[in-house]
Specification:
With about 110 residues, the protein is mainly alpha-helical. It has six helices and no strands.
Length: about 110
């Protein structure tokens, strides 16, 4: 019988304690993803993915991801627009929706004469 509510603080503490062992095992043994999932199932919880990233890199995963997204989004959008024929209709409608959101988010500033 599976427990419905996970004690995330308990899991975080135990994952912190076993970090060195886990890293050594992963680096030296090179287990498959399935083996890692069987041995360390908490690593596949969203909270622990973020925690493990921080344990390994000392950086916040979501902040790092969002920063990279902010940095590379304009170039990706230019690429998508330049290669319109390579993508399906879904990409076109997605870009149109994005354009609508950008236009509605930019405040209207009237031009002054003179």
């Amino acid at each position: 019988m599976k427990k419905k509510e996970k004690d995330m603080e308990f899991i975080r503490q135990k994952m912190d304690l076993t970090f060195c062992l886990r890293r050594k095992e992963i680096v030296e043994v090179e287990p498959t993803v399935l083996e890692v999932q069987e041995r360390w199932p908490a690593l596949f919880l969203e909270e622990q993915i973020c925690e493990e990233f921080c344990r390994v890199t000392t950086k916040d995963l979501l902040w790092t991801f969002r920063s990279a997204l902010d940095k590379y989004s304009p170039r990706l959008l230019r690429l998508y627009r330049a290669r319109k024929g390579y993508f399906n209709q879904d990409m076109d409608s997605l870009l149109e929706k994005l354009d609508e959101q950008v236009v509605s988010a930019v405040p209207y500033i009237p031009l002054q004469n003179g």
